[in-house]
User: Fold this.
Amino acid sequence: MFKTGVYYIPMKIYQTAVISTFSILLIAAVWLSLPARESVIPAYALASKVIVIDPGHGGCDPGASRGAYVEKEITLSISKLLAQRLSEAGAMVVLLRTEDRDLVGDGFSGTIAARKREDLKLRAQRANEVKADLFISIHTNADPSPRWSGAQVFYNSSSQPSKLAAVMIQEEITQQLGNTKRKAAPGDYYILRNTQMPAVIVEVGFISNPMEASLLVDPEYQDRLARAIFAGIAQAQVRTYDAEIENYPGW
Ligand SMILES: [Zn+2]
Assistant:
């Protein structure tokens, strides 16, 4: 049923899942001693976490576009770069599509709108089935006016962990890219309401803004975006991980 799913399961997952207190303290000490925060990303809390990445749109649903620039292509490129970084840090990454197609499959006979609804339903369902620790959907924003720009992260307002992830990702994007003053914001979206784990939508920028659109298709800029999103996820996981350690009864 889910032909497009690909699992990245690192070989050393069981080793990395068990990290000694000493190595945590060592990593923390090195991290804190460095002046530039973004130079080292505290990735230890990502080990063994199941992270679902949802590259927005695909197949007959291109998403937003501007000339030759198409949302579904941008979201896939950035998602692949993000998947690479997360899996290298020990996370178990489920990338919901790896090519230009949706999740619905060839046998569907309904309308385009019905197909899109089914596609979204399958994306949420897939994340719920694998019991993901985090769901991250990648999209580009669009507006009739070309003047708006800047990446922005959305979360389900009823979920505190979702808000934490969104705020951390927004902060890293703001710091590392330096081209948005937008704040993480609550968003009432189907995918956020129907996923049973912390979930965020990252609108990586406005495809309707000519300058930002040309950045969004630039592989180097895509990599910077992926790095910032990765760093934000890591920061959120570190805070969650540290809170769990502090509350651990045997500590
Ligand atoms: Zn979209």
Summary: The two ends are 44 Å apart (CA to CA). Residues 6-247 form a domain with the Aminopeptidase fold (CATH 3.40.630.40). Residues 35-39 have pLDDT under 50 and may be disordered. The pocket of zinc ion is lined by residues 56-57, 63, 71, 139 (CB under 6 Å).
